[in-house]
Write a structure and sequence with these properties.
The protein is mostly beta strands and 291 residues long. It has one domain. The protein has a nine-stranded mixed beta sheet with strand order 1-2-4-6-8-10-12-14-16, with no helix packed on it. Strands 3-5-7-9-11-13-15-17 form an eight-stranded parallel beta sheet. Helix 3 packs across helix 4. About 12% of the residues have low confidence.
Length: 291
């Protein structure tokens, strides 16, 4: 079964989706869930996110399959995408412009979102709302020499909701990557993981922040963070802060952070098997970034 895409563009009137008006629909939906949208840090003026009002378009994805985000959605400044109940969809994105995107995963939906960023300067804000027994796997791969500022939020709204954030950093040159990820557990029996691997080379500047919120009053929560970087240049900068905000004892959680250099033992082991030092480092880097 292929993916079916329905598109609703800023229509006004009475009724749902097609006629109620997107601003009203989004605001009402957020009010019902008692949640709001707020960016933690400002975006540079020249990369600022577009204003949502009167620019938002609403899409519904149904069925099973894969699609290319830029080909199907284009350069719309602000987008709401509903992944329909029971849908199983993979979305691949290679963004070349600044954008605000809201994903709503309905009950039992499965979404794999894969983003690859290169030399293009851009800012992006993504917010994922994950409903009952829905599963989100969002992947980011930063490479190239551009400037990228991104904020990703996931909100687990009902029992059985799961989210996995998986990020790989391998920029080069004088690239600057500023990336923030937050996961909010807002219901019992929800699960999340954040896994990050990165290489700091050349004169790159990597800023990464992660936060998992496990609030008071909820039970049977699972939240884990694992962040690891290797620095291979004295001019490269890494600033990273993984945090857990734990307010309940009914939780399984952990977080780990390491920033290291190449291990002499690993280099020696590879060279002893006939590899040059450069090839040994390339092999170690390739294996390290596979998560």
């Amino acid at each position: 079964m292929a993916v079916t895409i329905s598109r609703f563009k800023n229509v006004r009137g009475g009724g749902k989706r097609e006629t109620k008006g997107l601003d009203f629909l989004i605001d009402s939906w957020r009010a019902e869930k008692k949640i709001g949208l707020s960016t933690a840090t400002p975006f540079p003026e020249n990369l600022g996110l577009p204003k949502r009002k009167n620019e938002t378009e609403y899409f519904v994805f149904e069925g099973n399959g894969e699609l290319d985000f830029e080909r199907e959605i284009g350069d719309i400044g602000s987008v709401v995408i509903e992944i329909a109940k029971g849908a199983n969809i993979t979305i691949r994105s290679n963004p070349v412009f600044s954008q605000e995107i809201i994903f709503v995963l309905e009950n039992g939906a499965n979404l794999i979102f894969e983003e690859s960023s290169g030399d293009v300067d851009k800012a992006r804000f993504l917010e994922f709302f994950v409903e009952e027994k829905a599963h989100l796997h969002a992947k980011a791969h930063f490479s190239g020499g551009g400037f990228s500022k991104e904020i990703w939020h996931a909100r687990l709204l009902a029992p059985g909701a799961r989210t996995h954030f998986n990020s790989v950093f391998s920029p080069d040159g004088k690239a600057t990557i500023d990336f923030s990820q937050k996961i909010f557990h807002q219901a019992d029996s929800t699960e999340s993981t954040i896994v990050v691997r990165g290489i700091a080379r050349d004169e790159t500047n990597t800023i990464y922040r992660a936060e998992t919120n496990l609030p008071h009053g909820l039970k049977n929560l699972s939240g884990h963070e694992d962040v690891k970087f290797i620095s291979i240049s004295p001019k490269a900068i890494i600033s990273t802060i993984p945090t857990l905000d734990v307010g309940t004892p009914h939780v399984s959680c952990s977080h780990a952070l390491s920033i290291s250099n190449f291990s002499p033992e690993e280099i020696f082991y590879a060279k002893a098997r006939g590899l040059s030092e450069e090839n040994a480092k390339n092999l170690i880097t390739e294996g390290f970034l596979k998560v």
